Amino acid sequence: GDLSPALATGDLFDDATMQAVQRFQRRVGLVASGLVAGATIRQLNIPAEARVRALEKSLARLADSRFAFGQRYVIVNIPAAAAEAIEGGVVRRRHVVIVGKQAHASPMVESRLTVVNFNPTWTIPTSIIKRDIIPRMRRNPATLASMRVRILDRSGNEVNPAAIDWSTERAVNYTLRQDAGPGNSLGRVRIDMPNTEAVFMHDTPSRGLFQSDSRTMSSGCVRVADVSDFVTWLLAPQGFTREQVVEGMTQTQRRDVRLQQAVPVAWVYLTGWAAPDGTVQFRDDIYGYDAPGAPSQPIVRPVQRPAPSPVEVAPQVQQAPPPQPNFFESIFGGPRSGPSADARF
Question: Is 221 marked active-site?
Answer without folding.
Answer: yes
